[in-house]
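Hi support team,

I've been running sequence recovery on a batch of backbones for a student project. Most finish fine, but this one hangs at about 90% for roughly twenty minutes before it completes. I'm not sure whether the input is malformed or the queue is just slow. I've pasted the structure tokens below so you can try to reproduce it. Let me know if you need the job ID as well.

Thanks,
M.K.
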């Protein structure tokens, strides 16, 4: 029978388990969610954001592929829209050439459901899915990855990304043991911050349990300064970051001179054999919001809080120039082109003039699939 794309339901859970087993047996690291009910933001009446799962089914029971969607309320040039992030598609084309065309079919199926479609991440322009999107006429906008090393010795000795062979590892060990590496890393961060030597802040970060009405005040005053972004009022933020369960994280309310200027969300995790971070203690600024004029206050206060945790490294994915500048003022290194904002033709048309709109777009990790890799459940 032909392959059909259907919503995930409990009757297909065994089929998803069998799909995952075949993917692993074929050497793929990818699989899909066995439970048909998302554990993060399941669909609820009148919700401003949710996740939904869809499966490619052959012979009414055999799962050959899957994808997840996250419809969410956005503002594009001040106008509300439903904009949808997608995760996947994961197909047996990764391990069986008979299904090599299935990913294309599934992307087209997503577009039928939600034309204003995007994805963020992908790890680089040479990934197969990125090449596929380019061939379909999607617009690919590179965004930077920011990092600051707080404990150079541990970073040099324990990171995985830079220690991919014995020669590199030996060189990094030498830099760590002699202290030259620490001097170089600190000098690098200091040189970035000194370009903005006049930057000062009185902002402080306070941990809060939820996003209150102060969130709505910041949203009302700050949202108009952006060309394009997901809604970030209290209802949205409390749904994305529930008090219990995934994705956890620490919510920080940022205040300066008696005024709430914005907020941030931080995740910190002791990594274990991570492909990038090895066994480092890493923090991620997963989300943040303020008027662009207050971005530096938010980042500076957040960085001070995170540094107090004793982490080895802090990182963040940001797209808007104001947030990039704020991170630079705090000495963060920008690695360009490490993350891709992939935009469907329909969304690109809605964002016209695209180059202007995309430069004014605010994107963080919470606009994608969430802080994967930075929660204890991962």
């Amino acid at each position: 029978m032909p392959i059909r794309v259907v919503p995930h339901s409990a009757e297909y859970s065994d089929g998803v388990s069998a799909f995952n087993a075949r993917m692993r047996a074929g050497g793929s690291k990818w699989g899909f969610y066995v439970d048909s009910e998302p554990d993060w933001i399941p669909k609820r009446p009148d919700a401003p954001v949710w996740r939904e799962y869809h499966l490619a089914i052959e012979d009414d029971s055999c799962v050959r592929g899957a994808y997840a969607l996250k419809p969410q309320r956005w503002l594009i040039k001040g106008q509300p829209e439903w904009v949808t992030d997608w995760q996947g598609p994961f197909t047996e084309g990764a391990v069986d050439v008979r299904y090599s065309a299935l990913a294309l079919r599934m992307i087209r199926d997503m577009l039928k459901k939600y034309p204003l479609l995007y994805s963020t991440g992908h790890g680089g322009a040479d990934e197969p899915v990125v090449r596929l999107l380019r061939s379909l006429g999607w617009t690919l906008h590179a965004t930077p990855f920011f990092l600051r090393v707080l404990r150079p010795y541990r970073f040099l000795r324990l990171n995985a990304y830079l220690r991919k062979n014995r020669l590199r590892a030996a060189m990094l060990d030498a830099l760590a043991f002699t202290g030259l590496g620490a001097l170089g890393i600190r000098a690098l961060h200091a040189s970035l911050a000194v370009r903005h030597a006049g930057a000062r802040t009185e902002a402080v970060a306070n941990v809060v349990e939820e996003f209150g009405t102060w969130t709505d005040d910041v949203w009302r005053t700050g949202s108009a300064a952006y060309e394009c972004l997901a809604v970030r009022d209290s209802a949205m933020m409390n749904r994305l970051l529930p008090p219990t369960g995934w994705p956890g994280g620490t919510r920080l309310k940022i205040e300066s001179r008696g005024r709430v200027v914005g907020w941030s969300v931080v995740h910190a995790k002791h990594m274990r054999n991570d492909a990038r971070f090895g066994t480092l203690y890493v923090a991620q600024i997963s989300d943040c919001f303020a008027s662009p004029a207050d971005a530096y206050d938010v980042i500076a206060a957040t960085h001070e809080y995170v540094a107090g945790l004793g982490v080895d490294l802090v990182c963040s994915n940001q797209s808007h120039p104001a947030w990039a500048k704020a991170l630079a003022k705090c000495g963060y290194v920008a690695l360009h082109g490490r993350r891709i904002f992939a935009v469907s033709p329909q969304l690109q048309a809605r964002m016209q003039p695209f180059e202007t709109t995309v430069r004014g777009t605010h994107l963080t990790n919470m606009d994608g699939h969430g802080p994967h890799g930075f929660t204890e459940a991962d």
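--
Follow-up from support: It reproduced on our side and the slowdown came from queue contention, not your input. The longest strand covers residues 62-76. No action needed from you.
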